[in-house]
């Protein structure tokens, strides 16, 4: 079992945001964010927590849980996909 749980992670992430709109609405968002961070760690990024003997995904979950890594809401660029 993963510790902290998805619910705990969602509460932690959403409590740190400004405004009434939550950043994370589903487990899928957390899975994407932790997977992206784990890939960064595999590529050589420095871990923000003690990484000794831990797998990249476990490190990513711990970093998100402790607030070292944040999940930003996606923004859409109005000019994306438009051709001149």
TrEMBL record:
It is an enzyme of class 2 (transferase). SMART domains: RNA_pol_Rpb6 (SM01409). The keyword Coiled coil does not apply. Keywords: DNA-directed RNA polymerase, Nucleotidyltransferase, Transcription, Transferase. GO terms for cellular component: DNA-directed RNA polymerase complex. It catalyses: RNA(n) + a ribonucleoside 5'-triphosphate = RNA(n+1) + diphosphate. GO terms for molecular function: DNA-directed RNA polymerase activity. Its EC number is 2.7.7.6. Pfam families: RNA_pol_Rpb6. The RNAP catalytic core consists of 2 alpha, 1 beta, 1 beta' and 1 omega subunit. When a sigma factor is associated with the core the holoenzyme is formed, which can initiate transcription. Promotes RNA polymerase assembly. Latches the N- and C-terminal regions of the beta' subunit thereby facilitating its interaction with the beta and alpha subunits. Belongs to the RNA polymerase subunit omega family. HAMAP family: RNApol_bact_RpoZ. This is DNA-directed RNA polymerase subunit omega. It comes from Hominiventricola aquisgranensis.
């Amino acid at each position: 079992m993963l510790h902290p749980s998805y619910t705990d992670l969602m509460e932690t992430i959403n409590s740190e945001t400004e405004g009434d709109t939550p950043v994370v609405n589903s487990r899928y968002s957390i899975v994407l964010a932790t997977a992206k961070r784990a890939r960064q760690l595999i590529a050589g990024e420095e871990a923000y927590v003690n990484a000794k003997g831990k797998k990249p995904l476990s490190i990513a979950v711990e970093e998100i849980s402790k607030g070292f890594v944040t999940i930003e809401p996606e923004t859409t660029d109005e000019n994306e996909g438009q051709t001149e």
